[in-house]
Amino acid sequence: MITLHRRTILAGIPALAATALARPASAQAPAGPFSLPPLPYAANANEPHIDAQTMEIHHGRHHQAYVTALNNALKDHGQLAALPLPELLAKLDQVPEAIRTTVRNNAGGHANHSMFWPVMGGRGGAPTGDLAQAITRDLGGFDKLKADFNAAGVGRFGSGWVFVTAARDGKLALTTRPNQDTPLMDGQRVLFGNDVWEHAYYLKYQNRRPDYLAAWWNVVNWDRVAERYAAAKAGTLGV
């Protein structure tokens, strides 16, 4: 079953990324401006809700594949490669057409996952303070946020992400994007989000995406999300 799933996952990844998945992580990273951030906790820190094997494959192979493909695409485009990731994603119309789709997919994948790892590794529970007040004000309260967020994740056809964005004035909004698209492409900032690509959950949950979405709240690090909220209001939040 795992072999069949691996074929399914690889079929949905750009050829360059799939090639990188087949190589050891230590041999994947060419010289380039972008690099794989380390997990900020052990791979088993999110168990039993997200298993260690999924975390290892998702981080060390899938995320690394996006980084590798992005560096390769930009190796002859020094000015673009020098841009901070949010700025690169906001200026995709300036990327040469020959590499635009590759940059879109892989820069988006790198940004989304760089946000994703740090907002996990926690014990779930509920947000507090300014963040909790903003969720109540803009999203109808924490229980409604969870229900709406999970419904958006279930409703996202195929692969994609569910996000909560945070504006400079502190206003929050719920949104989804297909594939590896990100609100950064629209000049928005992501407060937190969840990955609903099958590779994020299939080994443990198979086709039970609703179960994965419900379980994910148990590993959210609300202290880290609150730090991101403060940074968003200060205008210093990156990916």
UniProtKB/TrEMBL annotation:
* Name of one Pfam family that matches: Sod_Fe_C
What keywords sit in the KW lines? Metal-binding, Oxidoreductase, Signal
Q: Can you tell which superkingdom this protein's organism belongs to?
A: Bacteria
Domain Manganese/iron superoxide dismutase C-terminal, which positions? Answer: 127-228
Catalysed reactions listed for this entry: 2 superoxide + 2 H(+) = H2O2 + O2
Gene Ontology cellular-component annotations = cytoplasm
Extent of the signal sequence: 1-27
Q: What is its EC number?
A: 1.15.1.1
Start and end residues of each Manganese/iron superoxide dismutase N-terminal domain: 34-120
A single Gene Ontology MF term assigned here is:
superoxide dismutase activity
Question: Where along this sequence does the record place binding of Mn(2+)?
Answer: H58, H113, D195, H199
Functional note: Destroys radicals which are normally produced within the cells and which are toxic to biological systems.
- Family the entry assigns: Belongs to the iron/manganese superoxide dismutase family.
What protein name is recorded for this chain? Superoxide dismutase
Provenance organism: Roseomonas indoligenes
